[in-house]
Amino acid sequence: MKILAVDVGTGTQDILLFDSHLDVENALQLVLPSATMILRRRIQRATQRRSAIVLYGQIMGGGPCAWAVEDHLKAGLTVYATPSAAQTLNDDLEAVEDMGVRVITESDVYRLPEGVERIEMKDFDFGMLRRTLLSYEVSLDDLAAVAVAVFDHGAAPRGVSDRQFRFDYLDRRIRVENRLSAFAYPAQAVPPEMTRLQAVAEQAQMAGVPVVVMDTAPAAVLGALFDPQVSRWEHALVVNVGNFHTLAFRFGERRRIEGVFEHHTGFLTPEKLDAYLTALAQGTLTHEEVFSDMGHGALVYHSNDTGELPPVAVTGPRRSLMRASTLRPYFATPFGDMMMSGCFGLLAAVADHLPNLREEILERLHAAPSGAAPWDTP
Which domain of life is it from (predicted)? Predict the structure, then answer.
């Protein structure tokens, strides 16, 4: 049984082809440029050629590709975009037009002059990945499922902070179902406000097999729980330091979430991150403190009655931010590979959401001495 797991970040997309007949360490792995980095380069080449561009397709991760669009406009060049593609730049299409982008209909894309370069927007390109692997004699025709992770702020209503909207979403999911796999969904169950997750679920269904999508940060934290040392901790604080966002969960018994914190990595220094994590561990961190510092927020669901700090584990591409941390974090390497943490978390989410595949996944992934999945809760 094979599952394709793809964790789409800002810098890279991390790809794991899980095979239940092999040890996890023998699974095929790729670390490739993320979709937003690929499109950034395409837009930059168009800028160098002084070509107008049209963005079509679906909402996807912004950042590098959005900055390339801004540079294209600053160079005095034309940018067209369909409504769904334009949402990559801003959910508010009036704000997109205020940038100088000309929002057009889907049918108008094919009426533009031939010299306008067409750039398709999407986070996950199953066809391209299948062709890449076929060149190595690896087929994706026998998959049992596809799992993809992306970061999604959600489509905040006009006038509502996307940071607050994102954090309200995290809070709702934890209160409804206190487990990390609550941030994963079968393709047909993605909430309508999570537009990026919806888009990638649609893209992944090209594979013709069941699809599970998940938020990247909880996926990475869930994957870190498979590290043999972390899996033994009864209480833990696990941090994912991503390129754009840093998210931490404080866990109690049976991996119940007792607190959560999320911030923009670019606003954090090692000292500031230590202070936030210490307050989260102690149960004193407030939402207002983080939000006023341009972060998403923080919530504590259970006080720390002992006053003792739990052990800290860290993962993520910018984990070096905690290299000299006073919290003396443990650098988690599940199955020997930190870059695949999100993919391992995706596999755990597939086990929770597709029960027919659970047993075969757990036979390879179970890490706790008891044999129970390390993310299980009552």
Answer: Bacteria
